[in-house]
Amino acid sequence: MKDGQLSGRATGHDPAGRESPPPLIEFRNVTVVRDGRKLLDAVSLTVREGENIALLGPNGAGKSSLIRTITREYYPSRRGLDVVFRFRGKDTWDAFDLRSHLGIVSGDLQHTFTRGISGREVVLSGFFSSVGLFLSHEVTPGMEQKADEILEFLEDAHLADRPMTEISSGEARRLLIGRALVHDPGTLLLDEPTNSLDLHALHTFRKTLRKIARSGTGIILVTHNLHDIIPEISRVILIRDGTVQKDGPKAEVLTDEAIGGLFCVPVRIREEDGYYYATGY
What we know:
It is a single chain. This protein is of the alpha/beta class. The protein has a single domain (49-67, 94-279), classed as Rossmann fold, CATH 3.40.50. It has 9 helices and 11 strands. It has helices at residues 63-70, 95-101, 107-112, 119-124, 141-153, 169-180, 199-214, 250-253, 256-263, and strands at residues 25-34, 37-47, 52-56, 84-87, 102-105, 187-191, 218-223, 235-240, 243-249, 268-272, 275-279. A 6-stranded mixed β-sheet has the order 5-6-7-3-8-9, with helices on both faces. Strands 2-1-4 form a 3-stranded antiparallel β-sheet, with helices on one face. Strands 10-11 form a two-stranded antiparallel ribbon. It starts with 24 loop residues before the first strand and ends with a strand.
């Protein structure tokens, strides 16, 4: 990292004319059933590495189920020629391959880390996929340097020696983002990242996300809050009842009709400085 930049793997047209890499995520007609309940219903979704996307939907819409399918906690309930379930062009993938390309931060992860672990330990634990550090972990000088660079980039160096039990929710969430960034993933997936944040914490957190997005790391933002969608996000996917309702450019998707239908309330959508807000409900 130099000059406030994170290394990213954003992809696009290759000027040398070489073949583009496969999509980061490619789902077609993916249905997931758990305990007799259909969680995802014929979901088709393609995400390129480096894209900035928001997945927006009400509570219980299937957003978390989609994340668990990406991380292979859930599997499609049926197979067939019309079903595609791939990560970077592969039909099977492991946790190491996943975290090298997709850093994941969730509320469940934050709950797991609510213990007396220092901020630096939280970030360093990303190298070992552990909760904190253990005697068996060999932390190299390179790892230490990388952790310090990430803390500096996120403007969280002052949290390096603070235990997770003595910092705010917003600060803890930023440290977990740092943990996810140690492998330089091309994309960062954030599940409901602003839950429990007050206005000041929300403002700081959105600044952090914008900085990451501008550095070249893609953002997949999973949320039920319209105001979480930072200006750098250009594509929005609406999900409800386990199905993709709409998928397209932000300005075309975030309309009165589409958002009102998604949340089943009459709304008026307004845009201000690149952010979208719903009023009138």
